[in-house]
Amino acid sequence: MGTIDIHTHAVPKGWPDLSTQVGPGSWPRLRVDSEREATIMIDAAEFRQVDETCWSAEARLAEMDADGVDIQVVSPTPVFFSYAAPADQAVQVARIFNDLMLEICAPAPERLLPFAQVPLQDPDAACAELDRAIASGHRGVEIGNHVGDRDLDHEGVVTFLQHCADRDVPVLVHPWDMPSSPRLDRWMAQWLVGMPAETHLSIISLILGGVFDRVPSTLRIAFAHGGGSFAFWLGRFENAWHRRPDLVGVSERPPSAYLDRFSVDSVVFDPTALRLLVDTLGAEQVMLGSDYPYPLGERPVGSVIDRADFLTADQKDAIRHGNARRFLAL
């Protein structure tokens, strides 16, 4: 049945000068350092070093074969989202990168499944770009976990999620744009602390913001990075819902009643953490993910599942591919 990795990223090997094509702004650009290496730049600052596995289907497929991965969901790198830009500019950026994503995945359409990005700051434009992208060959959409101070329960985002449910399009939520401070700017703390907290907060927003009470259960939505710190603190969340109903008990049901409404990936690196996810959410809500090809991702892909001796063979199969087939409607 094959292994499916639902959390990977791509970077095109170059794109048009966005300041010329879209308009003035602090846009990402690619500095090509060699035939196989490049650096994403924001103005004069280096954002991230990347290599050919970000844009070369051949290089990507070779590493997939080495790790025994049959299918990858290939999503944008979140720095391209452009949620802070004017909506008309963000539409143009989304179209550029969505079309380039199709080119990256075109050499292996059965193995590389492209996910689109949308201008989430404008619900109507986001819905329109989603429809265009799906008609062009995209298989789903990746969104950031917030748009400025608007979390996933903001009315505009809910409109977009409802549209995804109506179109039966799977949604992958990825943390991005973590807060910066002197305390978080050391030791990659934005990624080590901020990223799990951001994801946790957005799951809470879907529950307490009433999104799961309003959007049909047909919505297929998954959170990257194991859902952040949510599983570990579900007990505290549940306790607060019952003890402070004036502030927390605002959803129709307690938090634990919504655990079947979303999935998470398995990028938690340690079997003990994976066991917590399975014990909390159920094995049917966890899908293999790796964050490939970035350095903080898992290699070999799926190794945490291999080391999880508490999982049954059926549970391993579900996490490796069965749950993803349902999520992707394969």
Quick gist of this model?
The protein is of the alpha/beta class and 330 residues long.
Low-confidence stretches: none
Count of β-strands: 11
What sequence of helices (H) and strands (E) makes up the elements? EHEEEHEHEHEHEHHEHEHEHH
CATH fold-level topology: TIM Barrel
The level-1 CATH class = Alpha Beta
Structural class: alpha/beta
How large is the share of residues in beta strands?
15-25%
The helix count comes to 11
Q: Kindly report the spatial arrangement of strands forming the biggest sheet.
A: 1-5-6-7-8-9-10-11
CATH superfamily: Metal-dependent hydrolases
Largest sheet: 8 strands, parallel
CA distance, first residue to last residue: 11 Å
Overall outline = globular
In the CATH hierarchy, what is the architecture at level 2?
Alpha-Beta Barrel
Query: Helix share of residues?
Result: 25-40%
What Rg, in angstroms, do the CA atoms define?
19 Å
Q: Any idea how many domains?
A: 1
Rounded average pLDDT: 95
Protein name: 2-amino-3-carboxymuconate-6-semialdehyde decarboxylase
Subunit structure: Monomer.
Organism: Agromyces terreus
Pfam families: Amidohydro_2
General description of the model:
By secondary structure, the protein is α/β, with parallel strands linked by helices. The protein has one domain: Metal-dependent hydrolases (TIM Barrel). Helix content is 38%, strand content 16%. It has eleven helices and eleven strands. An eight-stranded parallel sheet has the order 1-5-6-7-8-9-10-11. It has a three-stranded antiparallel sheet with strand order 2-3-4, with no helix packed on it. Strand 6, helix 4 and strand 7 form a beta-alpha-beta unit. The mean pLDDT is 95. This is 2-amino-3-carboxymuconate-6-semialdehyde decarboxylase. It is an enzyme of class 4 (lyase). Belongs to the metallo-dependent hydrolases superfamily. ACMSD family. GO terms for molecular function: aminocarboxymuconate-semialdehyde decarboxylase activity; hydrolase activity; metal ion binding.
